Automatic annotation (TrEMBL):
<dbReference type="InterPro" id="IPR029035">
    <property type="entry name" value="DHS-like_NAD/FAD-binding_dom"/>
</dbReference>
<feature type="domain" description="Deacetylase sirtuin-type">
    <location>
        <begin position="1"/>
        <end position="231"/>
    </location>
</feature>
<keyword id="KW-0520">NAD</keyword>
<feature type="binding site">
    <location>
        <begin position="204"/>
        <end position="206"/>
    </location>
    <ligand>
        <name>NAD(+)</name>
    </ligand>
</feature>
<feature type="binding site">
    <location>
        <position position="120"/>
    </location>
    <ligand>
        <name>Zn(2+)</name>
    </ligand>
</feature>
<feature type="binding site">
    <location>
        <begin position="92"/>
        <end position="95"/>
    </location>
    <ligand>
        <name>NAD(+)</name>
    </ligand>
</feature>
<keyword id="KW-0808">Transferase</keyword>
<protein>
    <recommendedName>
        <fullName>NAD-dependent protein deacylase</fullName>
        <ecNumber>2.3.1.286</ecNumber>
    </recommendedName>
</protein>
<feature type="active site" description="Proton acceptor">
    <location>
        <position position="112"/>
    </location>
</feature>
<feature type="binding site">
    <location>
        <begin position="179"/>
        <end position="181"/>
    </location>
    <ligand>
        <name>NAD(+)</name>
    </ligand>
</feature>
<dbReference type="InterPro" id="IPR050134">
    <property type="entry name" value="NAD-dep_sirtuin_deacylases"/>
</dbReference>
<comment type="similarity">
    <text>Belongs to the sirtuin family. Class III subfamily.</text>
</comment>
<feature type="binding site">
    <location>
        <position position="142"/>
    </location>
    <ligand>
        <name>Zn(2+)</name>
    </ligand>
</feature>
<feature type="binding site">
    <location>
        <position position="58"/>
    </location>
    <ligand>
        <name>substrate</name>
    </ligand>
</feature>
<feature type="binding site">
    <location>
        <position position="139"/>
    </location>
    <ligand>
        <name>Zn(2+)</name>
    </ligand>
</feature>
<keyword id="KW-0862">Zinc</keyword>
<keyword id="KW-0963">Cytoplasm</keyword>
Length: 231
């Protein structure tokens, strides 16, 4: 592969074989709710207990020792670490499975936030967070009770790191999209935003909504197609 700047975009499919459910697959409903019904500021304002329960369950699942990075996370971490030009892994996932293989790396950007952080609605302080949240949880920084929310990007909110992502997309020579349905924007628009000569590749279980926009596509489970493509 040539040494042009690399962007890898990942979605829930990269973590599916680690045991984390995708959003729009057969196990995608949570207690009968679609993600679009619980991942909005309006849902949180209307029924914070339900939204906290959704994220508490998913945060607790991440602390289960059975949930571990898989061969796709490993192949991507190696690719980013050894790429001979600037490389950025942009994940839509709020799990920490990429982080475990690239701890503290500046080359990893969580555009939809992370489950293991919480944010104060009053003072904006962001804290590492592994406990359950509730409407009674006080903010450690300002002491306000009930002001904490998951540090997650909900529908209608601005994804994180967009300036950096847009700059990287404009310079990128290889764009890999891994395990995402291509239904949620702005991530779904990245392939169209990649400029000129860049090579665009989809690696997914099945053709995504934007599959035809890619120069090439390889379909199958991430733990097979990603290591095969990368190595
Ligand atoms: C495998 C596999 C295996 C399975 N191996 N593959 C109308 C038109 C266009 C846009 C809009 C519109 N109305 C509203 C919007 C905007 C909205 C949006 O896109 N809505 C759509 C539903 C239409 N977007 C927003 O509101 C975003 N903000 C925004 O746009 O701000 C304005 C802005 C303007 C200009 C520039 C920038 C911004 C915010 C979106 C926030 C998304 N949040 C969520 C939930 C929070 C996080 C959480 O709780 O986890 O993020 S939604 C949910 O979807 C989650 C995911 O990150 C995201 C993407 O899902 P993903 O990862 O693709 O998962 P799935 O389940 O959809 O797909 C999995 C794929 O894996 C499938 O294809 C499988 O086949 C595959 N797979 N097993 C390989 N083993």
């Amino acid at each position: 592969m040539s040494a042009a700047p690399l962007i890898v975009l990942t979605g829930a499919g990269v973590s599916a074989e680690s045991g984390l459910a995708t959003f729009r697959g057969p196990d995608g409903l949570w207690e009968g709710h679609r993600v679009e019904d619980v991942a909005t500021p309006e849902a949180f304002a209307r029924d914070p207990d339900t939204v906290h329960r959704f994220y508490n369950a998913r945060r607790a699942q991440l602390l289960d020792p059975a949930i571990r990075p898989n061969a796709a996370h490993l192949a991507l971490a190696r690719l980013i670490a050894t790429w001979p030009a600037p490389a950025l892994l942009v994940t839509q996932n709020v799990d920490d499975l990429h982080d475990r293989l690239m701890p503290g790396s500046d080359a990893l950007l969580h555009m939809h936030g992370t489950l293991r952080k919480a944010r104060c609605l009053r003072c904006g302080a962001v804290h590492d967070w592994d406990m359950d949240l509730s409407t009674a949880t006080p903010c450690p920084a300002c002491g306000t009770a009930g002001g904490m929310r998951p540090d997650i990007v909900w529908f209608g909110e601005m994804p994180m790191g967009m300036d950096r992502i847009e700059t990287a997309l404009a310079e990128c020579g290889l764009f890999l999209s891994v395990g995402t349905s291509g239904l949620v924007y702005p991530a779904a628009g990245f392939v169209a935003a990649v400029q000129g000569e860049a090579r665009t590749v989809e690696l997914n279980l099945e053709p995504s909504a934007g599959s035809r926009l890619f120069d090439e596509a390889h379909h199958g489970p991430a733990t097979e197609v990603v290591p095969r493509f990368v190595e």
